[in-house]
Specification:
The structure is a single chain. With 353 residues, this protein is α+β, with helices and mostly antiparallel strands. It is 61% helix and 10% strand. Strand 4 (292-293) and strand 5 form a beta hairpin. Helix 6 (83-132) packs antiparallel against helix 7, helix 9 packs antiparallel against helix 10 (233-250) and helix 10 (233-250) crosses helix 11. It is elongated and about 95 Å long. The model is unreliable at 10-14 and 77-87 (pLDDT under 50).
């Protein structure tokens, strides 16, 4: 059964048993392992035949091409049953909610401080006036010096409350800064300090909503496993940091991210395909020209290079589809000898009548 037929069949009969059978047929036809991630992928694909995942799969398999496991990993961003991802998203949601509460608390404390300060000033003025008239008796015969004493005590309590409110405001401000830092860290790779995959996806969605012209480059360090195997992961980490710095320097004005492992993704915004090609080629040559050595012994690491796939993003194209196309171009560059940039075009969109 082809992918297109399986997706169409899902809209005909929604019975659980039928859906279960179609999931099995789909996995068998696509020669995919029957593991939980692939089952989840097939379920979301077949249960929502008009959804964004189904459209992305149709674009990839048009012409009878089978899905690969790498295709699943690329497309399965939102449906893969990854508990770490869900936990991270839940934590980020709590951070955002807490930050809103802290900001509301800080605004409330600021308003209370302003009101307390006004009250304190008025009370101080009243106390001073009463002190000047301490010998005058009111109509009930109560000594105004006693009223002055009570007013002074109230003023002291107000000033103490002002100090506590000032401390609370300062603590709320510090907490707000820490929460903002935590939200930023959730979108930043701890090793290279580059924005991470989540930041890339959010930027893509924002640029697409704004209608900006975009290109995507996916870069992968050549023979990186050999570096790790020969020199160790600590050296491999330093190589990744050096590549991150080189890409950031060469692609200034565009979003450079560490997408995962030794793979980097660059989102070119407001640049033509030719302009993006010139930038990524300059970055490739810049990295190739560097000579990396071991920090302790000055032993040369040899030439470090990267391969890349570059593609423009079509109007209203989903992130998964455009990224997957760039990723396939990357593997063409790897197959073609590495240390090169493979360029592709966005698919033509049929006109609507």
């Amino acid at each position: 059964m082809s992918v297109a037929r399986a997706v169409r069949a899902a809209s005909v009969n929604g019975a659980s048993r039928d859906l279960y059978d179609r999931i099995g047929d789909f996995l068998f036809d696509q020669r995919l392992e029957p593991d939980p991630a692939n089952f989840a992928f097939a379920y979301h694909l077949l249960a929502d035949p008009e959804g964004s995942l189904a459209r992305a799969v149709h674009a990839l398999t048009d012409g009878g091409v089978r899905l690969t496991q790498r295709d699943i990993e690329s497309l399965n961003i939102d449906v893969k049953p990854n508990h770490d991802v869900h936990a991270k998203e839940h934590a980020e949601g709590l951070v955002a909610q807490t930050q809103m509460q802290v900001e509301g608390f800080a605004d409330m404390v600021t308003a209370i401080r302003a009101e307390t300060a006004d009250f304190g000033r008025n009370l101080a003025a009243s106390a001073e006036a009463i002190s000047r008239s301490a010998e005058i008796r009111d109509q009930h015969g109560v000594a105004l010096d006693e009223v002055a004493r009570i007013t002074a005590a109230m003023l002291a309590r107000v000033r103490s409350a002002e100090e506590r409110l000032e401390n609370a405001t300062r603590e709320a401000s510090d907490l707000r800064e820490k929460l903002e830092e935590a939200r930023d860290n959730a979108r930043r790779d701890p090793l290279t300090q580059l924005p991470n995959r989540r930041a890339f996806e959010e930027a893509f969605a924002s640029k697409r909503t704004a209608g900006a012209a975009m290109c995507i480059a996916v870069c992968d360090v050549d023979h990186f496993k050999a570096v790790n195997d020969r020199f160790g992961h600590a050296v491999g980490d330093r190589v990744l940091k050096a590549i991150a710095e080189a890409l950031s320097e060469s692609c200034q004005g565009h979003l450079v991210t560490r997408y995962g492992g030794e793979e980097f993704a660059i989102l070119f915004s407001g640049a033509t395909l030719e302009e993006a090609r010139e930038i990524i080629e300059a970055a490739r040559l810049f990295v190739q020209a560097k000579r990396y050595k071991l920090r302790d012994s000055d032993e040369p690491l040899g030439e470090i290079t990267f391969s890349a796939g570059l593609t423009p993003v079509a109007d209203n194209e989903m992130h998964q589809t455009a990224f997957h196309r760039a990723d396939r171009l990357l593997y063409q560059a790897k197959s073609g000898g590495r240390n090169c940039v493979q360029i592709g075009l966005a698919p033509d969109r049929p006109s609507r009548r």
